[in-house]
Write a structure and sequence with these properties.
This is Large ribosomal subunit protein uL4. Pfam families: Ribosomal_L4. Belongs to the universal ribosomal protein uL4 family. By secondary structure, this protein is of the alpha/beta class. It folds into two domains: 3-47 and 101-211, Ribosomal Protein L4, Chain: A, CATH 3.40.1370; 50-98, no CATH class. It contains seven helices and six strands; from the N terminus they run E-E-H-H-H-E-H-E-H-E-H-E-H. Helix 2 (32-46) crosses helix 3 and helix 4 (138-147) packs across helix 5. The chain is elongated, with a radius of gyration of 27 Å. The two termini are 19 Å apart. The relative contact order is 0.18.
């Protein structure tokens, strides 16, 4: 069933307008497994994968046999590079690798729909009038959050397109993030306590998530 929300202005008051959240995006039964897969895929892509440890063949030590084979009373040893010695090479050490894995587009779309639907059921979505700032000012964005009583909450603001003034105003606020409708991801939607969507961004979200489903 479609959900109807009041559109708020940047002063946190109702503007008198209402919008209807499409049920096919904001009203489906959340699929927890695809959400898990999409978050796992996102976090895997954040890993640099540049870890490296030297193995036996790469340690820069002499290859001279360090002691005679027999008669020492201890185990035989042929190289100081052996992993059993301090400073020797590591056994099966980490090597540079890419942690990315294939995830179908339909799974990503379903994951985003699932999280948006869950957020809608939790009443954690607010729709704002389209706005901008005359210049980048952290104080302006803090004023917006204060008007919405979200000073200490993690927020995700979704705009219809890139707005440098709004983005730069939010950049120094630890719990605030600003993205465009075409770059939303499941991880950000889950991580935010409150999802703020501008009125003009809603049609773009609907178009993007409906076209690929």
């Amino acid at each position: 069933m479609p959900m109807e929300l009041s559109v708020l202005n940047i002063e946190g008051k109702e503007s008198g307008k209402k919008v209807t959240l499409p049920a096919e995006i904001f009203g489906i039964e959340p699929n927890e497994h695809v959400v898990y897969l999409d978050v796992k895929h996102y976090l895997a892509n954040q890993r640099q994968g540049t870890h490296k440890a030297k193995e036996r063949a790469e340690v820069n030590y002499s290859t001279k046999k360090i002691k005679r084979q027999k008669g020492t009373g201890g185990a035989r040893a042929g190289s100081i590079k052996s992993p059993v010695f301090v400073g020797g090479g590591r056994v099966f050490g980490p090597r540079p690798r890419d942690y990315d894995f294939k995830l179908n587009k339909k799974i990503k779309v379903l994951a985003r729909k699932s999280v948006l639907s869950a957020r809608a059921k939790e009443n954690a979505i607010s729709v704002l009038e389209a706005f901008t700032f005359q210049q980048p000012k952290t104080k302006s964005y803090l004023g917006l959050l204060q008007a919405l009583s979200l000073n200490n909450s993690k927020t995700l603001l979704i705009l219809d397109g890139h707005d440098s003034n709004v983005y730069l105003s939010s950049r120094n606020i630890p719990k605030a993030k600003v993205v465009t409708a075409d770059s939303i991801n499941t991880y950000d939607l889950i991580n935010a306590e409150r999802v703020l969507i501008t009125e003009t961004a809603l049609p773009k979200i609907e178009t993007l998530l409906s076209a690929k489903s």
